[in-house]
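Slide 14.
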Amino acid sequence: MKFITTISIFIAVIFCGLGFISISKPIPLKFITPKGWAKPVYNFKENPLTKEGFELGKKLFYDERLSKDSSISCASCHQQFAAFSTFDHNLSHGIGNFLTTRNAPALQNLAWQKGFMADGSIHHLDLQPIMPLTAKNEMAETIENIIIKIKKDAAYKQMFKAAFGKDSINQKAITKALSQFMLMLVSSDSKYDKVMRGEDKFILPEQLGYDIFKKKCASCHSEPMFTDYSYKNVGMPMDATLQDIGRMKVTGNKNDSLKFRVPSLRNVVLTQPYGHDGRFATFYNVFEHYRKNMIVSSTTDSLLKNKLPLSNYEIGQLTAFLYTLTDSAFTHNPMFAPQGFNITPKFRDKH
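Slide 15: predicted structure.
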């Protein structure tokens, strides 16, 4: 019996030395759908969330080495304090101070989104990072060079192995890891959300603004996402320099001229300037556009053919309501912050 035990131990040591002992499996990370929200459209079965995958995606998101000159990262244009949008810049900045043609959108609640980019040119979250990573006026790198850089980093090797298994440093793993990080960027704890859950109450201006919002804005900015994810021409004339025709560039359909995706109004106070090209500096500029400055054309959305009548009083109450969509728990969550600021991430098990 002693001999058999000794042999068993010997065999175990040999197998361990040869690398046959199985690697611990990634720790599943539960995705929580907020109460009352629809089921996400993202297929988690094709990219199961794990703690290791999330942490890898986070490292990639903040890594400036993913750009050609190692000067910018995904987070350079998607800043957490601005709900992962670009604060105070009308157009996003790429390497060498190149300007893009659009304002970087907030990254939030992406699990419910089917189309990406302001014109819907990308159809899957896992594919979306490839565009900014390789665009000459953004990060301007090649996927091949990114992989070479990553393979030189011992920490990355361990993280990819932990998240996806052995020899997994490739485009698919990179984009899936980035998706895992971005999928967890769920904003659902603003004052509005607390009111909807019965945990808080609107003050009078907020309630009046909410009532006005439901009558005049909710047709496009539907709750709880505050967007219907459609593409609309809202009477913004084409910028003569940028020459951005919007959705028409994707579909080739003249009826899609100057149509852009309806943005979510969640955290809208933090995501200025506004519009697909950041032409509106403030709320007031946006309201002035809808009530006075729209250029109505044949492709302008039918709901806006007569512009959007808004009194100064209504604008004041609407503004009060829009402030209730700010989710400070989301914008200050250390779980989403750079590695050095996140000492002990806390993954919520329940809402």
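Speaker note: The domain at 191-328 is CATH 1.10.760.10 (Cytochrome Bc1 Complex; Chain D, domain 2).
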